[in-house]
Specification:
This protein has a 7-stranded mixed sheet, with helices on both faces. With 194 residues, the chain is an alpha/beta fold. About 13% of the residues have low confidence. Helix 1 runs parallel beside helix 2 and helix 7 crosses helix 8. The radius of gyration is 16 Å and the shape is globular.
Length: 194
């Protein structure tokens, strides 16, 4: 699980978005991991669409399986799931401990590239915390901007990472009104909302 400070500042982000946009908004989260931020989003807003490939793109995961296996009751988990790849464990945890209990959440197990290619939905708020490689972040931010409603808010995690700052710079996002939280999360807010 994430550290309490992450969830604290993520609640601050959501409270600010709610102040600017209200709570009857559609949210897209790119990169859901174990669902901590997804849970917070679902408690603040009308609908949340989560996108995460959970290893379908065959990329190396940042996951420490000991985090996940400690959460499972070994008597209630199918053996096939317990001994599958670590991303499948995270995916299983996310679905069964989060999505199953939140009716306003839609989940897509696919890459963000595939999701953006197949959706025509527009979102009020998009939060990106997916693949942190520079080229992928450029694609995610570019595609997110196309899927944002006219006065939508774009935010993301791991702002201090060189790849994140470089992607933000390439797209000129640093020239827009931007707020950073605990030097880790950024939020680009349309001027008409300020």
């Amino acid at each position: 699980m994430r550290e309490p400070w992450y969830l604290y500042h993520f609640n601050v982000v959501c409270a600010m978005v709610k102040k600017f946009k209200g709570d009857q908004i559609d949210v897209l989260e790119v990169g859901s991991y174990m669902g901590e931020s997804s849970k917070v989003l679902s408690e603040y807003f009308k609908s949340v669409t989560c996108v995460d490939p959970y290893g379908l793109d065959n990329q190396v995961s940042e996951v420490d399986t000991s985090i996940v296996t400690e959460k499972f009751d070994s008597d209630s988990v199918d053996e096939e799931v317990k001994f599958s790849e670590e991303n499948d464990l995270i995916h299983h945890y996310f679905l069964n401990n989060f999505v199953a209990n939140h009716e306003n959440v839609t989940f897509h197990r696919m890459t963000s590239d595939d999701f953006f290619e197949t959706t025509d939905q527009k979102f009020d708020f998009i939060y990106i915390d997916g693949d942190h490689r520079y080229d992928q972040q450029v694609r995610d931010f570019t595609n997110a901007l196309k899927c944002l409603k006219e006065d939508g808010i774009l935010a993301g995690h791991d702002y201090p990472w060189e790849s994140t700052k470089k992607a933000i710079g390439k797209l000129g996002l640093q020239d827009k009104p931007m707020i950073t939280f605990m030097e880790d999360t950024f939020m680009c807010i349309p001027e008409n909302l300020l």
